[in-house]
Every structure is written in C-alpha cells, then in structure tokens.
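Today's session is about reading a structure prediction critically. Students often jump straight to the picture, but the first step is always the sequence itself: look for stretches that repeat, for charged clusters, for runs of hydrophobic residues. Only then move on to the predicted structure, which in these notes is written as discrete structure tokens rather than atom positions. Here is the chain we will use throughout the hour.
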Amino acid sequence: MATSARQCVAAFWDAHIAAWLNGEDQLPPWLEDWFDSYVGAGLGEVTRQGFPEPYHGDLLGLEHTPRMVVRGLNPGEFRSRFQSREGIFAEEIKRHCSYSRWATTCPYYRPPWTLPDEMGENRYYQARLEFTRRWLQDPSADHRDLLIFECYPWHSKAITAPLRPPPEVIEEFVWEPIAELPVQDVFAFGRPWHDVAQALGLKETGTLGHGGTDYGSAVPSRAVRVYSLPSGQRLVVEWHAGAAGPPSAEETALLRKALSGAGPVDSVPAAPRPRTGGSVEPGLVGSSVEELSP
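Below is the predicted structure for this chain, in token form.
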C-alpha cells in the first residue's frame, strides 16, 4: 500500500512521543544525530524533560489541508506545567490519542496556554497567522491553514549555537512531507535561517533587498533570500534589523509581487511528489529563539 511522506512522518512522531509519555526516551541513531546537531549553553541548553515538538498544525489534513508552511527554529522554552510528562499538554495528547491529532488543535493559541494567568497572548503565532492571511489574501484563513515545522524539535530557552541539522534527516522529515502540500513557497523569518539554509546545502536562487536586487521594500535593512528545494518549491528567508517576524501588509504585497514573476525572481512551480514505501528512518531516508510563546 502506498504511504505518503506525511503519513510516515506523523506515524513516527506519534509513536515516539507516545513512548516518551510512557517514560521512554531512547533515540534511534539517526535521531540522536539530529539531537546532537545543536549544542547550546546557558539559556540555549537543550532539555529532554519536555516532549519534542517537530511541527504544529494539521500535517495530515485531517480537517483541512494547510495552505501556508512556515519554518521555526525550535519550540522554545520548556514549561514543566505544560510540556512535562505530567503536564497539561501531555494529558491533552493522551486524550487526543496522538501527537498528530493534538497538533491540529492549535494548543499554543488557545486556553489554557493563552490565559492571562498562564502565558497570555501568543504574539509569535499571531504574527504568523496574520502573515498567512495576508499572503493568501484570505482574511478568513485560520490555524488550519498554517503548518509550522521546527528546525530542531527539542526545547531550549534561546538559540546560542549554530543549528546544523543533518540534511538527510530534514529531507525525509521536513522537505518530503512539505512537497506533498499545495504550496509553492515555504517561509522562514529571521537571520539565522540564512545560515541554516546554507548548512543544509540549499541552492540560493534569488537575492532581494539588502545586499541584493532592490524590489521596492521601504525597509533598508530588509533582506530576502530564495532557495530552491528538492521538490521544486522554494524556501523564502526574510529578515530585517531589530525583528525576526513576518513583514507588514504593505511589505508582504511587495514581496508577493517580486516572487510572482513580476519581479526579479522567476516563479518555480511546486511539484508535489507522493512517497511510496513505509520506512520512516532517514538513511533508509545569534539571535533569540523563535518560540510558540509570547
């Protein structure tokens, strides 16, 4: 029976996180390589006291197929009250019977996480949801349209060392599932993503804004770098001084024009490709942290 990359990835993480919730924490060698690919110190020290969070959103299209994919750095600071084995989110995952189903509920953009006496307003997620609506030109777009894939799925309060994930693991566990989605452009915000893209060996195909071709941005420090993905889709990395969030409505319109083919970057159509076969193992496959919290 043909199995999609999204199904393989969801099945692996569902099984791994279920085992973690039951007290296990053994990593297969390829996953150990991913864990070891980042070594932060101080605020950047990684913990496995919380469950890994590789993605957020409806990866399988259980309710709605995502129309926007954004890359994050990692899931941010560990909060024992929510992400420990005895935490609120651990209990929610058990009630939903899997991580993949729980991830469709937008847990970091609803109570109890967003209650005033808990974490409060989630500005990180709100900014990416607003960007989704602007980019899709659809004010009704909601959390079901947005899928966030982390570069590194374990928790730390900050990123204090380079992120150099194994390219073959990212290919299997990120790029291949994204290739099945109806998106042309995958977005990543913040200067660290330029370094991550280069560490992954992605080919740069467009240089816009600061240090590249002027595309009309009113922000002198705004830089956009476009990388080709194996599927024919594109990774669009954007950053500007003083912030690591998405551009405003006006700047989004300029970027859309530049990437549509009306500007200096040629449009490359996405080429979703189904995966056949059931293996989920790869090889058979300074900035502050981006986090799903205020």
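Discussion point for the tutorial: The chain has nine helices and seven strands.
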